[in-house]
Specification:
Blueprint lengths: L10 H16 L4 H10 L11 H31 L1
C-alpha cells in the first residue's frame, strides 16, 4: 500500500511500526487485526482496533425497540378498552 502512494517505509519507520504493534499487543490488540484495519482503511499509521462504536450503536436500537413495544402495548390496550 505504501509503495502505491509513493511513501516507502524507511528502516526507522519500520522500527516505529514494530514498536507500536508491540504496544498495541500489550494492550490486548491482535497485531494482525491492527495491520488489517490500517490496510482496509488506507491509513498510514497503526491504531487501536475500532470495535467499540459498533457495539455502542447496538444498545440504543435495543432500547428503542423496547420503547416502541411498550408504546404499542399501550395503544392496543386503549383500543381494547374502546371495543
Amino acid at each position: 500500500m505504501r509503495a502505491r502512494i509513493k511513501k516507502q517505509l524507511s528502516a526507522h519507520a519500520m522500527q516505529l511500526a514494530v514498536d507500536k504493534l508491540e504496544t498495541l499487543m500489550a494492550q490486548g490488540h491482535d497485531p494482525a487485526a491492527v495491520l488489517n484495519q490500517s490496510t482496509f482503511n488506507n491509513w498510514q499509521g497503526l491504531f487501536a482496533l475500532k470495535d467499540a462504536p459498533a457495539k455502542a450503536q447496538e444498545e440504543p436500537v435495543d432500547v428503542k425497540a423496547a420503547e416502541l413495544a411498550e408504546k404499542r402495548r399501550k395503544v392496543l390496550a386503549k383500543y381494547d378498552e374502546r371495543t
